[in-house]
Amino acid sequence: MDAAYNLARWLTRNDQDARDVVQDAALRAYRFLDGLRGEAKPWFLTLVRNAGMDWLKANRPAELTAMDPAAPELQRIEEQTPETLALRAVDRRTLNEALAALPAQFREALILRELEDLAYTDIARITATPIGTVMSRLSRARRLLAASLRAIARASARKVHE
Amino acid sequence: MTNDDADRDVSAAIREKADYHRAPESLVAGVLAALPPESEAPRRPAWQRWLAQGAAFAGVAVLTWAATVAYLRPGEDELRADEILASHVRATLGKHLIDVASSDQHTVKPWLSARLPYSPPVADFSAEAFELVGARLDHANGRPVAVLVYRRRQHIIDAYVWPAGSGVKAGELTRDGFHLLRFGAGDWSYWLVSDLNRNELDDLARLLARGA
Fold first, then answer.
1. Which domain holds residue A50?
2. Nearest residue on chain A to B195, judged by CA atoms?
């Protein structure tokens, strides 16, 4: 249940909607109990993820259109050279904000991989994506997050100088 | 600096610093309350249900038998492995994971010794990324037993500890995605149970053995 709520919370970014999403997924799970094949956790997370995506579609449609992976802005950000500087020293709040600001697809990939410690095959199943796409999405998500952390670090450095 | 290094840094930053949102208790209660009662379960023809149950039962029986033959001498140990796995699953599913929540061995140890006929060693391994989150009392083989609860990332590891009889037999067992690891250390006998991978579970076993 913690894993379900955590994923829902990161997708919807607020407590009440995350609760609704988990409730919804639990009811779907109950209705489709026959669909249970293999391990229960990835299966249940699939339902949570789908309920979360439905919620985004209904309430934050802009977020889903904005995450077109071919968007030129994303590609430009990814091409920057990585530096380590900002990453090691980043504080909790900044990291959480940057993570929450990532497009939903990248956000969910990182949550499932880094916080739930799931295997690529499970993530592929949960997000209904080929495993190769999962891997490239994860690596792009990490680069995007690093880039946005660097941007935040630069902005605050400027503020200090002024 | 390569892309790989940067990736690892980002990974580590998320694992260490991103919020992990645990389900509020009111949500857990609400979800359970919203589910229809048992009797309203989705209907299938009775013969199908019996067939499914029979198949599941046969499957469990075969697994139990195979595990017994492969890993354990029959008798007491087998019973213990089953009981311990069941106890671990009950604890992680429900809310009764920890009776005393503390990473301080000087809090946990007296709490346990006040409630048990023995006083097991208690150590926190936060430095090695096995954080002691607390302890609980559990029952195995009809006796109360101390359970130290460790956390590594999102994995819970239960360490069942009791005074060793003579010659503790080491053993391991994997069932339903859980690893069970049995070993003796000093005067103590341990069972570790977790969904954590085997290598990391071995690491914790080594730390416990060194401490005991």
1. 1-66
2. A117
Strand residues in chain B grouped as ranges (E) = 131-140, 143-152, 155-163, 171-175, 178-185, 188-194
CB proximity A145 to B under 8 Å: yes
Q: Measuring CA to CA, which residue among B198, B206, B178 is closest to residue B63?
A: B178
Q: How many residues does chain B have?
A: 212
Where among A66, A84, A100 does a domain terminate? Answer: A66
Put simply, whether A23 touches B (Cβ < 8 Å) is yes
The domain that contains A132 carries what CATH number?
A: 1.10.10.10
A95 and B177 within 8 Å at the Cβ level: the answer is no
Instruction: Looking at the complex, report in whole angstroms how far the Cα of residue A9 sits from the nearest Cα belonging to chain B.
Output: 7
Assembly ipTM: 0.72
pTM above 0.90, yes or no: no
Distance from CA of A17 to the nearest CA of B (A): 12
User: Measured between CA atoms, how close is A87 to chain B, in angstroms?
Assistant: 7
Confidence of residue B46 (pLDDT cuts 50, 70, 90): low
Cα distance between residue B138 and residue B89, in whole Å: 12
